[in-house]
């Protein structure tokens, strides 16, 4: 039986749900169909490595919308189903359930998959990866006081897993191949502070140490043994692997849609258009290439999934493109909320507002990077209100006095309000 939909959204994650919601919010009246491999309603991923692992959040609490929302908005969900081929010329998608869907617009919101390490295959019962809600529930079942957890990876996901496992009472060791934590995403100042923070909480961190061998023996007290590059051996009960994400772009590639060879992301412009007219992409599966610098950016974040979905929705609904917000990212580790605003780069010089004390009872500080009088990147640790005050300065690229902004006694909200008033006189 043939089916037809105005908008076929392939993938049922954050970007897909936000896109469908935005389309209806813009008054789009065409039919919308969302096809997703998982059987769950579309859900948010950030809670998976935090509240879900601690069993402090129910499965339903992570759903982006209740089932009634999709019914009321006339959004059809086809879950537990994948699109195994996409014919861009005939505008048809062939599904794993045998259905064929014709469409006017298609949006690839296929997300990404946890990058699997050959030495730590996901087929091993004691090597766990976290990407889906079901993954989170499997990991949750293994965390309890006293269990020895070996976390492979010192990026954002690895640190969140280590933090949550520690909160459940586990004995945690983090193994990171780079010489510092968050080596690709944060300045050295923050990396060093995080190392101190983790070690002060009793978490062992092994830096500059990749895994050279892995052994699994269910008959031993601690069934996981990892040998590091320097010969050190670690024993544990479970290995949690956080080795990054690979874009789910195979469907796009097989369909003749351009995929970047360096990042494996589906190439899109700022409005989510792919190389094929009428086909769009949004979220973790995409890569944008700056036309001026040829810099490739594949951003894996909650905000980016939302923003790209909004852009695509406006194009399909024939509405003017919304202004792009300043890049924003957040994470929670060891009782500290860390937020980043703007784009960081290795050449930026960061200065501290406040006191960087990794063991203080009340931790709150910011790392700010300026180019002359312009704020380019801001990192707030338990200082979200101050970061929000600086957002409009960065959005409008207004000059400030770095000395005043860096002074902890400055009331940033008042300072920014005055700066904005002066700029618009």
UniProtKB/TrEMBL annotation:
<dbReference type="Pfam" id="PF14759">
    <property type="entry name" value="Reductase_C"/>
</dbReference>
<feature type="domain" description="Reductase C-terminal">
    <location>
        <begin position="328"/>
        <end position="415"/>
    </location>
</feature>
<dbReference type="InterPro" id="IPR023753">
    <property type="entry name" value="FAD/NAD-binding_dom"/>
</dbReference>
<keyword id="KW-0274">FAD</keyword>
<feature type="domain" description="FAD/NAD(P)-binding">
    <location>
        <begin position="6"/>
        <end position="309"/>
    </location>
</feature>
<dbReference type="InterPro" id="IPR016156">
    <property type="entry name" value="FAD/NAD-linked_Rdtase_dimer_sf"/>
</dbReference>
<protein>
    <submittedName>
        <fullName>FAD-dependent oxidoreductase</fullName>
    </submittedName>
</protein>
<dbReference type="InterPro" id="IPR050446">
    <property type="entry name" value="FAD-oxidoreductase/Apoptosis"/>
</dbReference>
<dbReference type="InterPro" id="IPR028202">
    <property type="entry name" value="Reductase_C"/>
</dbReference>
<dbReference type="Pfam" id="PF07992">
    <property type="entry name" value="Pyr_redox_2"/>
</dbReference>
<keyword id="KW-0560">Oxidoreductase</keyword>
<dbReference type="InterPro" id="IPR036188">
    <property type="entry name" value="FAD/NAD-bd_sf"/>
</dbReference>
<keyword id="KW-0285">Flavoprotein</keyword>
